[in-house]
Write a structure and sequence with these properties.
Pfam families: BPD_transp_1. Keywords: Cell membrane, Membrane, Phosphate transport, Transmembrane, Transmembrane helix, Transport. The structure is a single chain. The protein is mainly alpha-helical. It has one domain: MetI-like (MetI-like fold, Orthogonal Bundle). Helices cover about 70% and strands about 0% of the residues. A two-stranded parallel sheet has the order 1-2. The longest helix has about 35 residues. The C terminus is likely disordered.
């Protein structure tokens, strides 16, 4: 008998597998390289603004952080308000399409939602400044008169309706399609057996959604919210058209003094900037880059905590 070690038989690597593996590795490497190149460019161009002396920065800011602070606040504040309005609406619309509406109505609503995602942001901006702002201004007056004791509704109400709240409504409408589409697909992927088991135990349709659908879809809902938040953080034209910006930090929603956003400020100021002003705008873009990266990292951590959920645990 032969006492030698058994011969290991290796599977033959096909040409198609090799090409596909190489292509995916190359594509992933290109993405990482582009991201690293963007980060290096932003950091290198931001250094002159970060070390600039007082008075040389735009708006006579004493330091770069005094300049970018109100912009970063306005970016996060507007995106947060938009997400606060869009998240429950997108979940409700997605649940209606996936579990309540008849098939024909669900298909029509699905097409409409998908078409809204293709509307250019400048159209939303024009709609916001021409239609939405004049329409909600009387409502803002009523809010200010009736709820002026609440800090968010205090101050002198704007006479044009072009406030941070109007911008948040426009951003919520803009991010609603992509959030609804993602939530709808996640809800439709809920295991059918889990839904039928909940109904068999005597649960109503809403109780079945609470027990089976929403827990299963929680990571997907977080991902949808982060996709919407990413678009809201980087939106430029709609904010620039609707908002009357100022370099202030204010939580008032109805006044004419509103914080601008980083993306809108870059779009409005870049064509006229020169010298350190250009570096300051690029440095503010770096801040937006970091904010977006941190938010996506937090979202990824939340999703990874639930990635092993099967719908049965």
């Amino acid at each position: 008998m032969s006492t030698g070690t058994p011969r290991v038989i290796k599977a033959r690597v096909r040409l198609g597998d090799r090409v596909f593996s190489t292509s995916t590795i190359t594509a992933g490497s290109i993405i990482v390289a582009i991201l690293a190149a963007v980060a290096i460019f932003l950091i290198a161009q931001s250094i002159p603004a970060l070390v600039a002396k007082a008075g040389t920065l735009p708006n006579a800011a004493s330091s770069f952080w005094d300049y970018v602070g109100p912009l970063a606040f306005g970016t996060v504040w507007a995106a947060f308000l938009a997400l606060l309005m869009a998240t429950p609406l997108s979940i409700g619309i997605a649940l209606f399409i996936s579990h309540y509406a008849p098939r024909r109505i669900a298909q029509v609503l699905g097409y409409i939602i998908d078409l809204l995602a293709a509307v250019p942001s400048v159209i939303f901006g024009l709609w916001g400044v021409s239609v939405l702002a004049p329409a909600v201004q009387p409502f803002y007056v009523w809010l200010n008169t009736s709820l002026h004791w609440f800090p968010l509704f205090g101050g002198d109400v704007s006479g044009t309706g072009r406030t941070i709240l109007t911008v948040a409504i426009v951003l919520a409408v803009m991010v609603l399609p992509i959030m609804t589409a993602v939530c709808r697909e996640i809800f439709l992927q809920t295991p059918r057996l889990h839904e039928e088991a909940a109904l068999a135990l005597g649960a109503t349709r809403w109780e079945m959604i609470q027990m089976a659908v929403l827990p299963f879809a929680r990571p997907g809902i977080v991902s949808a919210a982060m996709l919407g938040l990413g678009r809201a953080l980087g939106e430029t034209l709609a904010v620039a058209i609707v908002l009357s910006p100022a370099l202030v930090v204010s939580f008032f929603l109805l006044t004419s003094q509103n914080p601008s956003t980083i993306a809108a400020n870059i779009a409005l100021q870049f064509s006229e900037a020169s010298g350190v002003g250009v570096n300051a705008l690029i440095a503010s873009g770096l801040v937006l880059f970091v904010i977006t990266f941190i938010i996506n990292a937090i979202a990824r951590a939340v999703v990874n905590r639930r990635r092993a959920f099967s719908g049965a645990n």
